Amino acid sequence: MTGAPVLGVDGCPGGWIGALLVGDGVTLRVAPGIEELLAALPGAPAVVGIDIPIGLPDSGPREADRLARRELPVGRKSSVFPTPARAAVLADTWPEANEANRAATGKGLSHQGFNLCRKIAEVDAWVLAGPGVVVAEVHPEVSFAVMGADTRPSKQRPEGRDVRRRALRDVGLDLPAELRGPGWAVDDALDACAAAWTARRIARGEALSFPDPPEVFSDGIAAAIRA
Q1: How many CB atoms lie within 10 A of CB 5?
Q2: 10 Å Cβ neighbour count for 144?
């Protein structure tokens, strides 16, 4: 698996952006759904690293989120959102999701958190159905931190994008010349590339796991952020 293609995936306005890493070369692809993204590849990747919670808690916070925040500097820890409880992810409206999350965890769910629930539910159903590839949860900011990048500058700013672009090149990734397109921005592409770097580390048996071993909730899915 050490030389096999791997895929890093991040959500974007156009759906999902995938960074296919073959050797050190990265090719970017966008599709409205995760299954469509995988179907458009020339073959199945050895590992898919995706920036979305996998393994949803029944109650309380996930250890994965707590440990991932510890890897980030002050000012960036909030980029690791609390994972909604499974009951909240399955709710149809924000008031229902907010109430379900409060009942399950003692805390409400922000509108920002609810806006992620559709994508969380999409990936959850895909993973539970058995996609036929290794799928792992990643968090790009944690991946950048493990690379040694200074993640304090926001990637919404030019200096933050430059820091992360240099970090990816320093770990050997040959990035595309164009990192933006219809339905996706530079930060989406950089995050997908960071996820691909972690996917390659998983394939090589080099990745860290937060926690190690993973937690397992009632869905039976191993819940850990890899980097």
Answers
A1: 21
A2: 29
* pLDDT at res. 78: 86
Residue 95 burial class via C-beta count within 10 angstroms: exposed 0-12, middle 13-18, buried 19 and up: exposed
Task: Report residue 57 as tokens.
Answer: 């808690």
**Which residues 6+ apart lie within 8 Å of 70 measured at CB?**
none
The amino acid that residue 73 corresponds to is P
**Arithmetic mean of pLDDT over the chain:** 95
> Residue 170, Cβ neighbours under 10 Å: how many?
11
Do 192 and 9 touch, CB atoms closer than 8 A? yes
Q: Where are the alpha helices (DSSP H) in the chain?
A: 34-39, 63-70, 86-89, 94-105, 111-129, 140-147, 158-170, 186-203
The residue written with tokens 């900011």 in the block is: 141
**Sites in the chain below the pLDDT cut of 50:** none
* Domain edges within the chain: 6-54+131-203
